[in-house]
Amino acid sequence: xxxxxxxxxxxxxxxxxxxxxxxxxxxxxxxxxxxxxxxxxxxxxxxxxxxxxxxxxxxxxxxxxxxxxxxxxxxxxxxxxxxxxxxxxxxxxxxxxxxxxxxxxxxxxxxxxxxxxxxxxxxxxxxxxxxxxxxxxxxxxxxxxxxxxxxxxxxxxxxxxxxxxxxxxxxxxxxxxxxxxxxxxxxxxxxxxxxxxxxxxxxxxxxxxxxxxxxxxxxxxxxxxxxxxxxxxxxxxxxxxxxxxxxxxxxxxxxxxxxxxxxxxxxxxxxxxxxxxxxxxxxxxxxxxxxxxxxxxxxxxxxxxxxxxxxxxxxxxxxxxxxxxxxxxxxxxxxxxxxxxxxxxxxxxxxxxxxxxxxxx
Length: 361
Hints:
The protein is mainly beta. The protein has helices spanning 6-12, 83-87, 331-337, 353-357, and strands spanning 20-26, 32-36, 42-44, 47-50, 55-57, 72-76, 95-101, 111-123, 127-134, 168-172, 175-178, 181-183, 193-196, 202-203, 211-213, 221-230, 237-238, 247-250, 255-258, 266-274, 282-285, 294-301, 304-307, 320-324.
């Protein structure tokens, strides 16, 4: 049911229509913008709907299953919408209302077509495409918490409650490798070596060479073996050469080798690994092209910072920033590095599906 004024309803009943589509966008930073597909700007209810950087909307189809609507808007990089801002997330989750107006009689009011939030962006050659997610689609999102072997708190928030807060440092870029990699020789902090406890399990391949590569969480570096347990949680024997049944060998890079007679069985691989001190932290730029913008840290080591995504604008030597330490949300990291296990928000010893569904013999 749509509320339409009498004047607009009468106009829509006519044979010839000169309607213009308008899109009102309210960003999360409080700024409001208007766009129209008309070839001239429209001022409606005190808001200017610009034809510069205007948009072309696709056909719209909605249904009752709470899925994402298929409406997409295409526009050129003009006016307030820039490629750098889209990449920086400035337009993420902005609220949107799309409606029709009669430019010849704005007093007749609007015919609202849909409303929602901006979803996924696609950056194309000189233009962008934005997905509109309906209000009903929000009901499809999961709420509440589920069991997880990793911590569900955000590092440093009120549930993590780490003593002294998140360690933060200031620095200056001394070298740039790319728009998401830079070096600061003053960052000499070393990451912790922490244990990883395997609660999910692995299946030894049924074909040769019967190997399993240990993969530390989030790209950490394998340090050393701790133990390997069989499906009954009994320790297997570590050997230096070719393993027999019930034995295994491991390389310095975390490549575990098993015997053919253990093929198809479940094993639990526990090891230690090194995590960069600032991995999973955040960089906030103080000066330079990206001043005021932030980006998560993917990995860190020896003064080299790799960001999760490229910055919207070029990173340059001399740019200053602050960088916050991170946490990979593992039980061992919380206990051994941050000494904050009392606030750990995960269930690292909950059996995984392989354990629960395994056949007992």
